[in-house]
Amino acid sequence: MSKCVKVKVVKGNNLVVRDFFSRSSDPYVLLKLGPNLGSTRVVDKNLNPVWDEEFRFPITDFNRCSSLQLQVWDKDTVFGIDCLDPDDYMGEAVIDLKPLVKGDGFPAQGKVVLYASEGNCLFKDSVIVEHAEGKRVQDVCLRLRNVKSGLLYLQLEWTL
């Protein structure tokens, strides 16, 4: 039987402008964990979108899906109709799920701090908390790569 990682895409902050006439963007997030994909809805004309959308990704082989990949895109439309042009790239981030799922060295009903560094996409330190109900929860703020600015806020949950 497979277990699931629950990913809540909370919000974006200070995303890059891709629609130059409106000085805004119409962002959405693509998620990939192993072979599983997800997508948030598009938030029109907003550089600080709030999605508050949850996704559940089954994990059958942790070795194939230990990293959650996220990409932010700008939906291109004209008068509400999809354009033929491809959507515009707004950045990406990756988060390693091993500390959340495997819990190596985790104190019983305790917490572990993951430190932000140049080697990861964490914008600030992130704490994984193990609850008595048998789950681990991690609030994450990720720095988007390959763009001038942008943060992505997530909440991750793993049921033991």
TrEMBL record:
Q: Which Gene3D superfamilies match?
A: C2 domain
InterPro entries, sorted? ARF_GAP_AGD11/12/13, C2_dom, C2_domain_sf
All residue ranges annotated as the C2 domain in the record = 1-110
On the tree of life, the source organism's domain of life is Eukaryota
Quote the Pfam families the UniProt record gives.
Answer: C2
What molecular functions are annotated in GO for this chain?
A: GTPase activator activity; phospholipid binding
Q: Which PANTHER family match?
A: ADP-RIBOSYLATION FACTOR GTPASE-ACTIVATING PROTEIN AGD12 (PTHR46220:SF1)
UniProt name for this protein: C2 domain-containing protein
